[in-house]
Amino acid sequence: MGRSRATFPEGIAEADQRYAQVLRDIRDRRGETQQALGRLLGWSISTVSRFEAAIERPDQATHRRYCALAPTDELREQAMVAYEALPAPPASGALDK
């Protein structure tokens, strides 16, 4: 938690960055590692890392699981608002090329 965060890759849209930051905040407030959170969500550490870097976006079901893990109503609400603000994902499911 005292560690510095990697910045978002170039070319990641602002809405995607906002959502990914909320996911980071949920994990930080829970005091979880990416590995521990991945186990709770049913994903690998690399998948959680891609979500938190805004390289990949969770599907609706995983988003709901993230919201359920949010330790506060405020974070849960932030996640819901940020997810709803995201543009529709490309057909491939990836955020960028």
Shape: globular
Classify the secondary structure makeup into a structural class: mainly alpha
Q: Percent of residues in helical segments?
A: 55-70%
Which segments are poorly predicted (pLDDT under 50) over 5 or more consecutive residues? none
* Number of helical stretches of at least 4 residues: 5
Over the alpha carbons, how many angstroms does the gyration radius reach?
12 Å
Strand content: under 5%
Note the quaternary state here: single chain
Beta strand count: 0
Compressed to H and E, one letter per element, the order equals HHHHH
The overall pLDDT, averaged over residues, is 87
Largest sheet: none
Distance between the termini: 31 Å
Walk me through this protein's architecture.
The protein is mostly helical. 57% of the residues lie in helices and 0% in strands. It contains 5 helices and no strands. It has helices at 14-30, 34-41, 45-52, 60-69, 73-84. α1 runs antiparallel to α5 (73-84), α2 crosses α3 and α4 (60-69) runs antiparallel to α5. The longest helix is centred in the N-terminal third of the chain and has 17 residues, at 14-30. The radius of gyration is 12 Å and the shape is globular. It starts with 13 loop residues before the first helix and ends in a 13-residue tail after the last helix. The model has no long low-confidence stretch (mean pLDDT 87).
